[in-house]
Structure formats: C-alpha cells, structure tokens
Fold:
Amino acid sequence: MAEVFITRVSKFLPNSPISNDEMEEYLGLVHNSASRAKRIVLRNNGIKQRYYAFDKEGNSTHTNAQLTAEAIEGLYDEHFGPQDMELLSCGTSSPDTLMPSHAVLVHGFLKNRNVEVNCASGNCCAGMNALKFGYLSVKSEQTKNAVCTGSERTSSWMLADKFNVEVEHLEKMEATPILAFKKDFLRFMLSDGAGAFLLEDKPRGTLSLRIDWMEGYSYAHEIETCMYAGCEKEENGEVKPWSLYTPQEWLNESIFAIKQDTKLLDQYILEKGAESLKMAIDKHDISSEEIDYFLPHVSSHYFVEGLGKSLEAHGAPMAPEKWFMNLAQVGNVGAGSIYLMVEELFASGKLKEGDKILLSVPESARFSYTYALLTVVGA
Structure:
C-alpha cells in the first residue's frame, strides 16, 4: 500500500466578504420584514463575515460547479497541470442539479482529459467522504494522484423570494405570517465557497501533509433526521420526500428549504461527536496529547465550549491552544469548511515537520462524523 500525501491545497471564495449588517441587503427581507432570528443567531454563531456567489441584485456570479473548478485550478503549478489529473472526487450538500452529479459538472468546466470521477453527497461529511475516496485510490495504487474537493453554494437557497409564497400562504390561512425558526436561523449561518486538495503518492515541496488514517461513524441507526431539505419531517420522525408533495405544496411549505431540528441538534451533536472521536483515536492508539493542531468543523461558536467539555468528559481533552478555526472569517461552508481550515493553516507558516493535525467533521443530518489524522512531512 502506498503512502498518501496532500501536496497542494487551494481555495476559492466568491466576490467580496459580506458583513453581518449587509446580509439582508443580499438575502432580502421575507415578507418585507426584518428577521426576528437574525440578531440572536449571529450573536451565538460568532460569524463576522461570509461569501455569497451572487450580487445585491440577486444575479448569480458562480454556480457550485464553477466555484469548485476555480478552487481546483488553484492547485496547478509547474509540476501538476490539468492533463496530469487521474481522479476527481467532489463532495457537496448543495449541488446545482439533481442530475448530472456535481462531480461531472465540475469535470465539464475543467475541460482537461478523461478521468475517473466520484461524487459524494450528504452534508458536511461529503467533503471528507470525497477525500477518503481519493485517499483510498492513491493508497491502493489505483491512481498516483487524486484531486478532492469540498464546496457549497447554499446562499441562493436562503434568498427571501424562496420563502415569500409560504408566508403569504400562512397569511391567507389566517395564521401568523412568520417564517419558522427551523428555516429562518439557517439563513444567517451558511456561506459559499470551495476548497481543493491534491493527493499524491510522494511528498513534494517544502512541506506536505501525510494522511495517516481516516475514520467515519454514523448514528442514523439510533437517531432520527435532524437537518434536511427536499422533504418534510413528520410527527413520527420519518421524512416525507419532495416527490410525494404536489408542486403547489413545494411552494406553500418551502419543501426545498434547508431546515434543522434544533432540539435534536443540542441533544446529540456534541455527545456523539466526543464519543466517536474517542473511538477513532483509541482505534489508532494515539492520545489527544500527541495532537498539535485540532481542526473541528463547527457550525457555530455556540458549540465550542460545550465540545471542549464533552471531549474532556470522554477522555479526549483538546487544549484550547491546539484549536484552529476560521468560522468567523469565512462562515459555515459545510462540506468545504474543513478544506478552508486546512488551506489557511497550511499557508500560515506555522507548520513544522512532525506536527500532527486532527481533522474533525460532524454533520447533523442524521449525526455522522468523519476524522482524519495528518502528519507534516518534509520533501
């Protein structure tokens, strides 16, 4: 089995950063009313700015596939070009189309050569699942390199016009015309962007990141759906898919909006995260004291203190100085967030040979968790 190294990292964030005060200038006002959730959500999530792939007039500047292609093009240098790519593996939770897959749309924009293509769907873990496919391909010597990506373009799902029909319908039904919190609060959480890694079977450059192992865990067998889109959650916890609703119901109930059961989120996200992380490091016989950098993807700074306490309670404490996050500067980019964190750390000049980096990515859709251990190596 070959060793696998991340030899190049790249990101693409569209347009200019958008401050908290500017958000509704871009997203619009639902039913011409300022959001009641915005102030509370922004205070808790700690996000100061984010990026959107459209302008103030609502005109699209990039699709998800275009964001991803831009990030991939940042990997090219004198040693690796578009014709050298052997495998393309992409993950996202916000594809531009139901069919074709996100990955083949990206490949179409690259216009490079015939390559193997893999697409990972899901939520935040989709980016890590795309990475694992590339990792296993290079490790098993099926390919000598792989380009892996994580990306999101969720902002267009958050525009006010996507919810106005629902609120107008509520008003006609003589109900309170207010967008439900499970939909409204996510409008102020999510951001657009893409990250990309080049995986190779040999290190190069001043520093590379060796992937020592990757592990994934799902708790869908015991916990019901928490975060969802294209469906509605019923009283018994099951989800009713969009295909079983009428087109008018798609509008009246905002079926395609991203929603989250916040009670379930608070109940399980930290507990299962700490439990699964401890399982991963125990399996590979590494203690938390050996970790130099801990990169946890969190949707909100609201969870940071609780995650730290939960990890300590499960025997996997992570000292505060080891934590590395950039949520405040780039927002929650879902499947792309871990790529953006690695890119920023890699470019920071802080890394030295021998450093160990633990990546931790949860997703609340049905409570899944993915981990990877990286070691910094010289050329």
